[in-house]
Write a structure and sequence with these properties.
This protein has 187 residues and is α/β, with parallel strands linked by helices. It has 7 helices and 5 strands. Helices cover 40% and strands 13% of the residues.
């Protein structure tokens, strides 16, 4: 008969440690859900793209990257992307125009869209509102705001079967500490 070594945990101990860790990192997606969430990052700037990828991978998301918006729809469909995080200022097509095209595509009605930019947050918020984005993130707050914005985008798109009626009625999440009332989590 083999004896268990002293460095093994009791069967329920690992679960307890995970629960404690999750409680202290409540903004992170659940481990089960994060495995299924695939995020497409689109940014022509390699450094920014790598920063977004690093933040999202650390939060447990599966990340696919594109340096250009060209071919994004094919990648979204092929790789079963849940959320697109895209830069606004790109040379081939601006992110806001791509976001509008994606939002207007009935086949992608459950796709979350998070706009990322270094432009003024008020301008970014107005652009997000106009194109029906599910969230906005300032590049200055990328390390703390991107993962929660992606999680909110997934939650806001869960169960939706058609695109929003118009961009005027949609709400973009802010990267500030006080999101709009529609995006606040209950305490």
């Amino acid at each position: 008969m083999r004896r268990a070594s002293s460095n093994h945990r009791a069967p329920g101990q690992a679960c307890h440690l995970l629960v404690v860790w999750r409680a202290s990192h409540a903004w992170l997606p659940s481990l089960e859900r994060a495995v299924m969430i695939r995020v497409l990052v689109i940014d022509d700037d390699e450094i920014a793209r790598e920063a977004m990828r690093a933040v999202l991978v650390r939060a447990g998301f599966d990340v696919v990257e594109l340096a250009t918006p060209i071919g994004a729809t094919a990648v979204i469909k092929r790789d079963k992307i849940s959320v697109v995080a895209l830069d606004i200022n790109m040379p081939t097509i601006n992110g806001d125009k791509l976001a509008k095209l994606l939002r207007d595509n009935a086949q992608l009605s459950n796709l979350g869209i998070v706009l990322v930019s270094s432009c003024d947050i008020d301008k970014l918020s107005a652009i997000g509102e106009k194109v029906g984005a599910d969230g906005i993130v300032s590049k200055a707050k990328l390390h703390v705001a991107l993962a929660p914005a992606v999680e909110r985008a997934v939650a806001s798109r869960a169960g939706k079967t058609s695109p929003p009626p118009s961009s005027a009625g949609s709400s973009a999440a802010s990267s500030s500490s006080n999101p709009p009332p529609s995006m606040r989590r209950p305490k």
